[in-house]
Amino acid sequence: GAAHVAQLALDEIRGIERAGGHPVKISASIGISAACGQPGSTGDEADVLLAQADQAMYVAKQGGKSRWAFSPDAQWDQCPDPLAAARERDTRPPAL
What we know:
By secondary structure, the chain is α+β, with helices and mostly antiparallel strands. The protein is built from 3 helices and 4 strands. A two-stranded antiparallel ribbon has the order 1-2. Strand 1 (about 20) and strand 2 form a beta hairpin.
């Protein structure tokens, strides 16, 4: 999902052709990271997450214009499956 959102953002940015009546060419580099800790994370954890995304952004920049990259430190494997979590919280009786 994060890669899809990043690509949509890059596509939108790339689609900007004029600013203030002048032709422009805009690109962006996006770094993606993830932390799947407990709610109410401390400020230190947020700083670490931001630093990881920042490092990933520089990896994207090194690859050329208009790219995104994942942080190698992203904690994707620790994230719960959102569909499984929703099923666990669903208290409705099973459909017949």
